[in-house]
Amino acid sequence: MSLVFLFSLCTYLPIGIGIYFTITGKLTLAQFVAIQYSSSWILNGFNQIVTSWNTINSTKDIRQQVANLHIQVDHTDTTSVVRDLDVEQISFDFKGKTIFQNVSFDVKRGQKILIGGKSGVGKSTLIRLLLKELLPKQGKILLNGKNYLLNQAYSSFGIVGQTPIIFEDTLRNNVTLGKSATDAEVFRALDLAGLNEFSNESAIKQVIDENGHNYSGGQLKRIEIARALFYNRQILLIDEGTASLDPQTAKGIHQSLLTNPDLTVIEVDHHIPDDIKKLYDQVYQLNAEGMQML
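Predicted structure:
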């Protein structure tokens, strides 16, 4: 017997009995109302207990992941300069289904890596694993040979997704997120992101409209890249970041990023043109059985 059925039975059965007793004169109307009020108060408390119990059970997997995060992570700080990222034989399951397994690759400082694969193969999941937002079923992901925490991931990785995160504020604040900075520091980030035309005092004071309607899609994408560079994110993770842009704009963004010798790039995408693929140091193909170098 389900809890929902039991709760419904306890709710409506007393009402039926109370109506019968009231009609037959065994209860006054006032007594019936008082009993129903008390019954509802008790049942509502019981319902809250059942709801809380269901919530606890439904979050069991999440709580286990949090517990595992503290167990599995080496709390020794990584060095400030990220020299290499090693992914060693990781596998990931979701609701009992294997998404991919035995995925291994390594990235050295300054390298540019492209990971392709069909839609649904787990490319975005791989990005979340690198960020420690998800934990692999098995295997290791190491920075400078050491495990790392979620907050360390966010201080080392910059993220560029399909939809740029832009605020209705000045260009300066969209780059700095309110952090104190000199104009020169903002200009440098804009220049590195290929936004040289905005590297002046009047341009960085301009307010970006809601949803960025007064900037092009390519400019908004570069603003997000400039933000990552301003915060000195040493590895840029690009999750189909140019998929919504026209080919010429996408090519310009790729050329500015992939020719920067100081920037480490890991991009997941399945429709990069062949002429752009030549700019990557390594190109991989992800599938359920692992990852192959092309």
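Summary: Residues 78-293 form a domain with the Rossmann fold fold (CATH 3.40.50.300).
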